[in-house]
Design goal:
Elements: H1 2-13, E1 23-27, E2 32-36, E3 41-46, E4 50-55, H2 61-66, E5 86-91, E6 94-99, E7 110-115, E8 119-124, E9 132-137, E10 141-145, E11 150-155, E12 159-163, E13 168-172, E14 181-185, E15 190-194, E16 200-206, E17 211-213, E18 218-219, E19 235-240, E20 245-251, E21 256-260
Parallel strand pairs: 2-6, 2-8, 3-7, 3-9, 8-10, 9-11, 10-12, 11-13, 12-14, 13-15, 14-20, 15-21, 16-20, 17-21
Antiparallel strand pairs: 1-4, 4-7, 5-6, 16-19, 18-19
């Protein structure tokens, strides 16, 4: 999985910003960044005090000339106040970002550099959904998408991730013990890599796929009442390294992989 994962990372990072006008900056280093409706998205955590939004598409000179002095509009009444096809607003310690139009202004998606301790929320519901990639983040991450594949690299959690039709690949740096972690895909696979010394209480399940792991999982065979519990190859409850943070890994129709890194 690691080789495939990093191939995807390198391919995604090949998108570049070609000019200063493809960039918009917000002075913010705490709170939550909420990103809604961006079709293709990469978020890079870094040790900084600004959120930097970058369009990955080259400017179309003819389109730029024709639209000079005009703004993108949409049915939701959103305004492109960033100049790169995004509506960016702040409310109650939250930066709310929305894409103005599907594919109209950024065929290759957006890259956002974020102070790495901020919390993230990502939401996408339409069939235009493409890759969501998040790397080098230490804060809490919540993702709710329908058609997007999700790739998380060097994250700590807590995590609450769900994709309906996409695959979910996650590589932890360390695993936070602060709050529960949930990684769920309905129709895609769930592939998770974490340090071998992670302490966790596990629930791993699938309805129609299979479960795979190279970690030393102590399977729980008794309930809290001391009676024997039913054990299934489709659902495993257990602990690693004596137990710790609650981790739920689930795919209804595909396989679940848990591996040490």
């Amino acid at each position: 999985m690691n080789n495939i994962f990093y191939t995807i990372v390198i391919s995604f990072l090949a998108c570049t910003v070609t000019s200063g006008q493809n960039q918009f900056t917000v002075n913010k280093s705490v709170g939550t960044l909420s990103v809604m409706g961006i079709d293709e998205l990469e978020i890079q955590g870094y040790d900084g005090k600004e959120i930097i939004f970058m369009s990955n598409s080259d400017q179309d000179d003819e389109q730029s000339e024709r639209s000079k002095g005009l703004k993108l509009i949409n049915s939701l009444g959103l305004n492109d106040n960033s100049g790169i096809g995004l509506s960016i607003e702040e409310a109650n310690n939250e930066i709310i970002v929305k894409q103005i139009s599907n594919g109209a202004s950024c065929d290759d998606g957006y890259t956002i550099k974020v102070p790495n301790s901020m919390s993230l929320y990502v939401e996408h519901s339409t069939t235009y959904g493409d890759d969501v990639m998040i790397k080098d983040m230490n804060g809490e991450i919540e993702i709710s998408v329908n058609y997007n594949d999700v790739y998380l690299d060097n994250v700590t959690g807590p995590l609450a991730i769900k994709t309906v039709y996409g695959d979910l690949d996650t590589q932890f740096g360390i695993v936070s013990q602060r709050n529960a972690i949930s990684l769920v895909s309905v129709y895609g696979h769930v592939d998770v890599s974490m340090p071998a010394n992670t302490k966790a209480d596990l629930q791993v399940s699938t309805n129609y796929g299979a479960l795979y792991s190279d970690m030393d999982i102590k399977v729980t065979t008794k309930g809290s009442d001391g009676k024997m519990k039913s054990i299934s190859t489709k659902k495993v409850n257990g602990t690693i390294n004596g137990g710790g943070v609650e981790i739920n890994l689930s795919s209804m129709y595909d396989d679940v992989y848990l591996r040490s890194n």
